[in-house]
Design brief:
The structure is a single chain. The chain is about 25% helix and about 20% strand. The protein is an alpha+beta fold. Among the domains are: about 110 residues, 2-Layer Sandwich (Uridine Diphospho-n-acetylenolpyruvylglucosamine Reductase, domain 3); about 100 residues, CO dehydrogenase flavoprotein, C-terminal domain (Enolase-like, domain 1), CATH 3.30.390.50. It has a five-stranded antiparallel beta sheet with strand order 4-5-8-6-7. The protein is globular, with a radius of gyration of 19 Å. This is Xanthine dehydrogenase family protein subunit M.
């Protein structure tokens, strides 16, 4: 690990005055980064992937940015709330089970105790070419150098939202629950506070894989707001991975259903492990609208979800695994007992 200076952000006013941008903001990275749980940042610093000269600890803001508040309007979660605390919250488990499940199935118990929600949605890809600096060809780490994964090891790489410059998959779980439930991101920075749909936070790689989010320089995530809705309680997160503990998704699905008997009033579907960003499967949602939900209609929706999938050899299995994962999630959500 390279030498760096360490400071604590004194208060939230300092954030509004402007914290230096992170490596995932819209402009070129600067050598200052924020520290919350540290479960991604310190890991990548040790690997020499990230090289900040200055680390700002924002845990001093935890008293104001760790809220877990559920009411008739929905759920509000502070960016510094820890994954384990949210997963264990009784109201979250009852009213928004897909949120609790997505967090409980992530990482290990020790990491969930440390990791913050804001840091979790901004975690970087697990692509081995990104995380190993001995490989020069990684457009996400070294813009313009190429993508070694295109013709290399890509078994866990994306099949949706890819480009000729990058096929790295987004690794998180919680983000799929957020995008399925139409969450809003609360952001603070030097230009004041703003709110955007969570679906607008991440950028597909296109020709700039190194630019991963729409955060402006100096901005940080302050929290998430998830609106209440008739689909929230009937929601499910299914994750398929190589092992049952501490492994990233080969495919996952977050679903939330509003049903009239067996008929779908509205379906909300997000896919993980198969895309470059948290992926809202709008074609699958449209395929289910007004249909009786059974195995056949679920399979049609899954076909629609992966109609544009593009594979690269070792990940040829992913569209089929993704379809089966989505069908399972839909049928399990339908069978849920709702009090």
């Amino acid at each position: 690990m390279r030498p760096f200076s360490y400071e604590r952000v004194p208060d939230q006013a300092a954030v509004r005055r402007g914290v230096p941008q992170s490596a995932t903001s819209r402009a070129a990275p600067v050598p200052t980064m924020l520290l919350a749980g540290g479960t991604t940042l310190l890991d990548l610093m040790k690997l020499d992937v990230l090289r900040p000269e200055r680390v700002l600890d924002i845990n001093t803001l935890a008293p104001k940015l760790s809220a877990i508040e559920a009411d008739a309007q929905g759920l509000r979660l502070g960016a510094l709330a820890r994954m384990a605390a949210v997963a264990d919250d009784a109201a979250v488990r009852r009213e928004f089970p897909v949120v609790a499940e997505s967090l409980m199935l992530a990482a290990s118990g020790q990491i969930r105790n440390m990791a913050s929600l804001g840091g979790n949605v901004l975690q970087r890809t697990r692509c081995s070419y990104f995380r190993d600096v001995s490989y020069a060809a990684c457009n996400k780490r070294n813009p313009g150098s190429g993508c070694a994964a295109l013709d290399g090891y890509n078994r866990l790489h994306a099949v949706l939202g890819t480009s000729e410059q990058c096929i790295a998959s987004y690794p998180g779980d919680f983000a799929q629950a957020l995008i399925a439930l139409d969450a809003v991101v609360e952001i603070e920075g030097p230009q004041g506070a703003r709110r955007i749909p969570f679906a607008e936070l991440h950028r597909q790689p296109g020709d700039r894989p190194d630019v991963e989010t729409t955060l402006n320089p100096g901005e940080m995530i302050a929290g998430f707001a998830i609106p209440a809705g008739p689909w929230a309680r009937r929601s499910r997160y299914v994750k398929v991975r190589d092992r049952e503990s501490y492994a990233f998704a080969a495919a996952s699905a977050a679903v939330a259903l509003d049903l009239d008997g067996d008929k779908v009033r509205q379906a909300r579907i997000a896919l993980g492990g198969v895309a470059t960003v948290p992926w809202r499967a709008t074609a699958a949602e449209a395929a289910l609208a007004g249909q009786v939900l059974d195995e056949a209609s679920a399979e049609r929706a899954a076909e629609a979800a992966f109609r544009d999938a593009k594979t690269h050899g070792e990940n040829d299995y992913k569209p089929e695994l993704g379809r089966r994962t989505l069908v399972r999630a839909l049928l399990e959500a339908k069978r849920m007992e709702i009090a």
